[in-house]
C-alpha cells in the first residue's frame, strides 16, 4: 500500500521512484509499481495527491480517499471554482486590499490549475475504516477528510500532527469540516492513540517519538495564539490587521497561509461568543466592507477556553 503520492511538481515524481528504490535496496522489500495493490491519499491537499496522474500510469493499484475529500479528486475543477469563490469572499471580509487580493488569488490558483480530476476506486467507510492490517482514523480539521493510518504501533499521521510546525488551519467558512474547533477535537483523538504508538511518521518533517508531548505542544500553541488575538482585539481590527500583528507581512503564498490561520482562530473565538463585530452598521450598508472584530465586553476572560480545552484533561 502506497500512502500519498507527492505533488507531481518539480522532482516529486522522481523522489517517489527514489523512495521505492530505497524500500527495495535499504529495506530489502521486493516492492514495485506492479506489486502495489492500493494507494491511500491521507487527505485532499495537492502536495499529497498531485502525483496521482503519474501514479495512475504506473500502476493498476486501487486509489482510495476519505469520503469528505472525494470531491477534491473526482470533481476537481468544480471544487476549485467553488473554493476560489469562497476564498475571494473571505479575503474581502478579512480586509485585504483589492490589488493584493487578486495577487493572492492568482498565487492560490497557480499550480492548482495544472491538475485535473482523477477517478477514485474506494472510500474508507464502506471498509469499516480498515484496509487489511491498516486501521484508518478520521481526524477532520487540517483537511475535511484527513485520516491517520495505524499499523501495529506505527502511526502515519498525514498532516494532522507535524514534528516541526503546527499544521495549517483555515476557517471553516472556506470548507466544511475544517476550522480550528474540528482540529482541536481531532488532536484529542490522536492523543488517545498515543500510548499505543511507538513512532509517528508525518507528511512533512522528521519522525515523532513522543506523540502525546507533540500533541500537547500544538494544543498549547493554539491556546497561546487565541489568547494573543483576544488581547489584540481589545480594539477593533480586521483579520488582515490581526494577521499582520501576529505574523508580519510574509511573502507570496505564506501571506495567504497567515490570513487563513488568523481567520481560523478569529472564527473559533467569534463562533463561541468571545468576539463581536464592531461595524455592523457599515456592513449592512456595503457588502464589500471588511469585518472589524472586538472582544465581547463580558467575556474578557480567556480562562473559559483554556479550562474547557486544558491539554492535560481528556
Ligand atoms: Zn495538508
Ligand atoms: Zn502537506
Query: What's the rounded overall pLDDT mean?
Result: 94
User: What radius of gyration results from the CA coordinates?
Assistant: 21 Å
Q: Report the structural category.
A: alpha/beta
Distance from first to last alpha carbon: 33 Å
Task: Catalogue the ligands.
Answer: zinc ion
**What string gives the helices and strands in order?**
EHEHHEHHHEEEEHEHHHEHEH
Query: What's the total count of β strands?
Result: 10
- Main β-sheet, spatial strand arrangement: 4-5-6-7-8
What general outline do the C-alpha atoms trace?
A: globular
Tell me roughly what share of residues is in helical segments.
40-55%
Strand residues, percent: 5-15%
Query: What's the main sheet like?
Result: 5 strands, mixed
Taking pLDDT < 50 over at least 5 consecutive residues as the criterion, the unreliable ranges are 310-314
Number of helices: 12
Please give a quick description of this structure.
The chain is α/β, with parallel strands linked by helices and 314 residues long. The protein has twelve helices and ten strands. The longest helix is centred in the C-terminal third of the chain and has 22 residues, at 211-232.
Amino acid at each position: 500500500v502506497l500512502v500519498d503520492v507527492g505533488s507531481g511538481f518539480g522532482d516529486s515524481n522522481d523522489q517517489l521512484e527514489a523512495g521505492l528504490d530505497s524500500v527495495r535496496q535499504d529495506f530489502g522489500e521486493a516492492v514495485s509499481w506492479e506489486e502495489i495493490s492500493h494507494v491511500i491519499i491521507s487527505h485532499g491537499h495537492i502536495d499529497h495527491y498531485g502525483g496521482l496522474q503519474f501514479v495512475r500510469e504506473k500502476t493498476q493499484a486501487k486509489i482510495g480517499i476519505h469520503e469528505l475529500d472525494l470531491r477534491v479528486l473526482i470533481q476537481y475543477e468544480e471544487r476549485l471554482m467553488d473554493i476560489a469563490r469562497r476564498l475571494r469572499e473571505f479575503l474581502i471580509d478579512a480586509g485585504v486590499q483589492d490589488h493584493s487580493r487578486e495577487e493572492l488569488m492568482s498565487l492560490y490558483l497557480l499550480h492548482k490549475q495544472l491538475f485535473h480530476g482523477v477517478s477514485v476506486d474506494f472510500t474508507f467507510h464502506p471498509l469499516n475504516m480498515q484496509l487489511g492490517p491498516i486501521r484508518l482514523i478520521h481526524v477532520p480539521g487540517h483537511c475535511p477528510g484527513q485520516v491517520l493510518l495505524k499499523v501495529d504501533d506505527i502511526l502515519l499521521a498525514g498532516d494532522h500532527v507535524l514534528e516541526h510546525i503546527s499544521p495549517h488551519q483555515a476557517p471553516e467558512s472556506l470548507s466544511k469540516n475544517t476550522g480550528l474547533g474540528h482540529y482541536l477535537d481531532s488532536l484529542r483523538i490522536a492523543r488517545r492513540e498515543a500510548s499505543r504508538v511507538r513512532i509517528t511518521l508525518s507528511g512533512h518533517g522528521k519522525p515523532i517519538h513522543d506523540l502525546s508531548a507533540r500533541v500537547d505542544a500544538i494544543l498549547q500553541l493554539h491556546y497561546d495564539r487565541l489568547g494573543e488575538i483576544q488581547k489584540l482585539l481589545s480594539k477593533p481590527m480586521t483579520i488582515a490587521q490581526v494577521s499582520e500583528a501576529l505574523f508580519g507581512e510574509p511573502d507570496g503564498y505564506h501571506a495567504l497561509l497567515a490570513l487563513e490561520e488568523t481567520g481560523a482562530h478569529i472564527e473559533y473565538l467569534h463562533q463561541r461568543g468571545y468576539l463581536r463585530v464592531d461595524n455592523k452598521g457599515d456592513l449592512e450598508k456595503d457588502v464589500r466592507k471588511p469585518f472589524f472584530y472586538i472582544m465581547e465586553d463580558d467575556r474578557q476572560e480567556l480562562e473559559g477556553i483554556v479550562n474547557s480545552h486544558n491539554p492535560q484533561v481528556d
